[in-house]
Amino acid sequence: MMCFALLMILLVSFPYCINCANILVLETVPSPSHHIWIRTITTALAAAGHNVTSLSPDIEEETPENLHYLHLDKVYDVIYNPEDEDFIMSPNFLTWGALNSYLQMVIIHMSPEFILKGCLKSTGFHQLLAYPDDFKFDLVIYDLFVMGIMLPFVQKFNNPPLITLSIVPSIQIISQIFGGSLQSAYVPHLLNENTDLSTFRARINNFLIAHLDYFWLEYFIVPRLNKLLKKGFHRDVDIKELNRLSKVALMNNHPGLDKIEQAFPNVISVGGLQIQRNRTLNKDLQEVMDNAKSGAILFSLGTNVKSEMLGDARQIEILEAFRALPQYTFIWKFEADSLPVEVPSNVVIKKFVPQNDLLAHPNMKLFISHCGLLSTQESVWYGVPILGLPVFGDNWLIMKLSIKTGVAEQGDLRNIERNAFKKLIEKMINDPKYNENAKIRSKIFRDQKETPLERAIWWIEYVLRHPNMTHMRSQSMDYNIAQRQSWDVLAFLYTVFLVTVLILVKMCCCVCRSCVKEKLKIKKD
User: What's the mean pLDDT when you consider all of the chain?
Assistant: First the structure.
């Protein structure tokens, strides 16, 4: 009987043992929003029985038994206190956001080098580096935003299959690894504030920033990263070639929210996977929301932009605008310990707010947001209009796309003034079109055959089932950018055309000269 019982236990657990995998996740991006998105995936993978190891600047104290973190504990220190005086990344994103698109692009592309320096100094990096080379990882998942600077671990662990994560909804980034073309004629660049490319001038600007982005990264940033990686891993590294090993990319986008781009079949849309449904608020916030009979308004600038960065003058203008609207309850995510003036009775200050759960409450009437992608997705999912105060990076593009669908208006955070701010809030709450359009957009976003998270997990396990898959690989990966964009063909055709024109012109000139000479000869005779 004992043997029979052990045999039955073994038979029941055998399929589970086969299906579980050892997965390495390389987060590397020092951004709480990136971590929130990836944490949703790693937690779901652990819940599915997989053993997950995450190398990350942001770690969780409470995790499932089969999810554990290796801490990149020096990354935030290095990125905000760089030793290199040639690079200053201001921790105040308002300062960064005031720069033009080209300078913001330069800062974004220089940041991987300093993040990498922080990684190489971190405890978690050396812990993972100390793993034996024959340690078995069945799959590696990584965040593409900083070029996969920890991808040499793929080489170290004998090239397990690779999956790309892109929290940024841009095919332009993915095209660099899957062989796509630059679609600058009709797809606005992520940092381009102008989404309307109908004019020639707009297309010129978009062409320039898209191509400068590509060449700056390809011929300046990548070689510098390769040099640093060679020192850190003590082996020759080509970060570009390691990125090209990816089988599938999971992208945080949705056609109902984002710009439309051509994509390969192995670029999977999983936008909004971080949205947690059917959760409840804690008691104090539940009471606040239930008692907001005229409606509640949430004000949050996300995880990177701190409210204290606004300064006293802006904080006062915002609070006075809220004070002038006593019929509404305002919930402000504010991280500092004090405010420059007395807080109005209709304003609730919290250092942390469960944004997803507050937006889900039926009394939530408006979301005052910096227009980060995760915040916008959550607002759209629950059908809440957005008053946008864009700060940096892709905030302006996301804002313009939301305005185009009729669910948002834009304010000016840098020059905020209480009366104008108050009128804008009243306009959005009193005009029913914003709420109606938000509900329509919510229905479009929600109408999916499975949740984005379920789709992401299915594709991750698909790669585990087919680790040597090549059927989704495009032949364009074997071409350089000139060939993919047909620049060589166009150059050849233009050359043929010009040579043909020159020959014809030459022939015409010869015929004309001959005719002139003949006429002169006849005249002379």
Answer: 88
Q: How confident is the model at residue 81 (pLDDT cuts 50, 70, 90)?
A: confident
Q: Which residues pair with 424 in a beta bridge?
A: none
Q: Which residue has the tokens 């055998």?
A: 14
Which amino acid belongs to residue 316? I
Q: How many CB atoms lie within 10 A of CB 349?
A: 17
Residue 14 has pLDDT above 80, yes or no: no
What mean pLDDT is predicted for residues 278-299? 88
Is 54 in contact with 67 (CB distance < 8 Å)? yes
The sign of the CA dihedral 452, 214, 153, 75 is: negative
Short-list 30, 80, 79, CA closest to 55: 30
The tally of CA atoms less than 13 A away on the side-chain side of residue 256 is 20
Q: Report the distance separating Cα 108 and Cα 343, nearest Å.
A: 37
Q: Which pTM does this prediction carry?
A: 0.88
Residue the block writes with tokens 């990816």: 246
Q: Please tell me the predicted confidence (pLDDT) of residue 61.
A: 85
Q: Which residue bears the tokens 């929301």?
A: 289
| Higher pLDDT pick, 280 / 46 | 46
Q: What is the 3-state secondary structure (H, E, C) of 154-223?
A: HHHCCCCCEEEEECCCCHHHHHHHHCCCCCCCCCCCCCCCCCCCCCHHHHHHHHHHHHHHHHHHHHHHHH
Q: What is the DSSP string of 422-491?
A: HHHHHHHHH-HHHHHHHHHHHHHHH--SS-HHHHHHHHHHHHHH-TT--TT--GGGGS-HHHHTTHHHHH
Token pair in block for residue 186 = 């009709």
Contact 288, 331 (CB under 8 A): yes
Position 18, amino acid:
I
- Taking Cα atoms as reference points, which of 306, 297, 335, 524 lies closest to residue 429? 297
Q: Angle at the Cα of 356 (from 350 to 359), degrees rounded to 5?
A: 85
- Tell me how far apart the alpha carbons of residues 273 and 37 are, in angstroms, rounded to a whole number: 7
pLDDT value for 2: 53
- 3-state SS of the chain: helix, strand, coil percent to 5? 50, 10, 40
For residue 276, what is the DSSP state? Answer: P
- How many CA atoms lie less than 13 Å away from 30 in the CB half-sphere? 23
pLDDT tens-digit series, residues 245-259: 999 999 999 988 888
Residue 286 has pLDDT above 80, yes or no: yes
Q: Cα separation of 347 and 368, whole Å? A: 14
Paired residues of 166 in beta bridges: 251
**Helix and strand numbers, DSSP H then E, in the chain:** 21, 13
Q: What angle, 0 to 180 degrees and rounded to 10, lies between the N-to-C axes of helices 373-381 and 395-404?
A: 30
